[in-house]
Structure formats: C-alpha cells, structure tokens
C-alpha cells in the first residue's frame, strides 16, 4: 500500500499515512477526480512515488464518506501495482502455471479428438478405395456426417455403385454375343 489518507470536502488532508502531509491541500488530478464524484472510484496512473524517477503503476481507490447525504470526507487508498507484482510475482506465476497446465492438457485432448474425427473417416475412405481396386464394388462408406467428409463419402458411395453397374454391364457384354444375346464361348 503506497498511501492511505482521509481528505475533507475542501481537499485538505485530515489524516495520512505520511504525517508530514496532514493539513495540506490535495490538488493533483486523482484528487480532483475523486472529489468530483459521489460514488466510489478506481483510477490508475503511473507515478513517481518516491520522487527519484522510479515510476510505479498505481491503483487509487477512493470512497466518499457520506453523512446525511452530504460528503463528510473521502477515504483514498493507493496500491502500488508494481510493488505488489514484485512482491507476489512467484505466487502469481505459480497460480498462472496451475491454470495453464490443465488448460494446455485439455487443449491437447481436444486437438487429438478433432484430429481423430478427420483421420478416421479418411482411413476408412482409403481402405474402401483399396477394396474397389481389388474388385469389391459392394463397399459402402457410412453417411453419418453432415460436413465435407460426409459429402465425400456420399459421392464415393455413388461412384462405387456406378462402377458396380458399369462393371456388370461390361462383363455381360464380354460374355454374350452382341447379335444374338446368347452366352459366348468365353462364358
């Protein structure tokens, strides 16, 4: 905590964590903004807290203290985010790691499942093509997908059916006499 102080409605410091500042008027931008609002506020600013050129990110919390609907004072608390991060860095990194590791694990599981959902149908198609090349035209791929792979499976099944019909027709033509329609000697 960089500072805690109480300021009256005119901007005079009534109580401060640095006793040298009691009685001074607060005229900085954060003070003006916190005094202008009747609601609690949070402001962020980069400030040189020590006056030595070492800047810190500051979170300024202001809470108006109202008595009978009128502002009696404003409580302000300044938290140095830079100092907080320096002091709590290892703990924050551990918590981030504890969050990131399961997330990475689940991401890998999802990637594996997605990969399998594409590779399994492609392997089936490769096996079906191999069966057709061996002359088995009765092979049919399952049509339970509604994506591009399902469309490919549907086209493959139509192609296999057409090949079966064409091969039967060519076989029949090879085994029958074209003029009489009787089976030939080859049959």
Describe this structure as you would to a colleague.
With about 190 residues, the protein is α+β, with helices and mostly antiparallel strands. Helix content is about 50%, strand content about 20%. It has three helices and five strands. It has helices at about 30-35, 80-135, 150-175, and strands at about 5, 15, 40-45, 55-65, 70-80. It has a five-stranded antiparallel sheet with strand order 2-1-5-4-3. Strand 3 and strand 4 (about 55-65) form a beta hairpin. The longest helix is centred in the middle third of the chain and has 53 residues, at about 80-135. The radius of gyration is 40 Å and the shape is rod-shaped. The relative contact order is 0.08. The mean pLDDT is about 85.
Briefly characterize the structure.
The protein has 187 residues and is α+β, with helices and mostly antiparallel strands. Helices cover 48% and strands 21% of the residues.
Number of separate helices = 3
- Indicate the structural class: alpha+beta
Please state the CA-atom Rg, rounded to the nearest Å.
40 Å
- Uncertain segments are none
Please report the distance between the alpha carbons of the first and last residues.
Answer: 100 Å
Shape: rod-shaped
How many beta strands in the DSSP annotation? 5
Query: How large a portion of the residues is in β-strands, by DSSP E?
Result: 15-25%
SSE series? EEHEEEHH
Helix share of residues?
40-55%
Strand order of the largest sheet: 2-1-5-4-3
Task: Give the rounded overall mean pLDDT.
Answer: 86
The profile of the biggest β sheet is: 5 strands, antiparallel
């Amino acid at each position: 905590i960089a500072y805690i102080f109480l300021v009256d409605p005119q901007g005079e410091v009534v109580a401060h964590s640095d006793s040298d500042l009691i009685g001074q008027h607060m005229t900085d931008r954060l003070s003006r903004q916190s005094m202008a609002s009747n609601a609690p506020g949070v402001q962020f600013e980069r400030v040189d807290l020590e006056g030595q050129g070492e800047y810190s990110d500051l979170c300024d919390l202001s809470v108006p203290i109202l008595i009978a609907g009128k502002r009696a004072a404003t409580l302000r608390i300044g938290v140095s985010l830079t100092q907080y991060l320096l002091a709590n860095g290892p703990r924050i990194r551990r918590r981030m790691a504890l969050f990131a590791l399961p997330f990475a694990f689940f991401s890998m599981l999802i990637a594996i499942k997605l990969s399998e959902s594409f590779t399994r149908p492609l392997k089936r198609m490769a096996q079906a093509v191999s069966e057709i090349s061996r002359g088995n035209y009765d092979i049919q791929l399952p049509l339970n997908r509604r994506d591009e792979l399902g469309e490919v499976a549907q086209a493959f099944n139509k192609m296999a059916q057409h090949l079966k019909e064409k091969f039967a027709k060519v076989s029949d033509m090879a085994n029958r006499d074209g003029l009489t329609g009787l089976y030939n000697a080859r049959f």
